[in-house]
Amino acid sequence: MARRRVPWGEVHMTSFADREKEFEARFKHDQEFRFKVTSRRNRLLGLWAAQKMGLTGPDAEAYGKEVLAAQFEPGGDKRILDKIANDLAAKGQKITPAQVRFELDHFAEQAKQQLMKE
Length: 118
Description:
The protein has helices at 8-52, 57-70, 76-90, 97-117. It is mainly alpha-helical. It has a domain at 37-117: Major Prion Protein, CATH 1.10.790.20. The mean pLDDT is 87.
């Protein structure tokens, strides 16, 4: 049985196209994962802040969703940090934006670990 000879250029192009598809798939997965981590981080941060403000049940969930929605507003993380620091200050909680940033970073790692287990 004779083997079909494939010119070197065709083999090279096929492997290049395969690598390109693989890279695109990996990039898409990484972007989706990053979005999920950010969303979960913001929700966890919102629930933490809600607890600090004395909110429970549906009120805490609603506040968590407010924080989650804030990620889509201009300003990104700074907008979220300012919102939470201002909301906590309005409820009489003495907390600085740096302390909120610390919690944000903590919840980012927690969200990443949770998603990796799913």
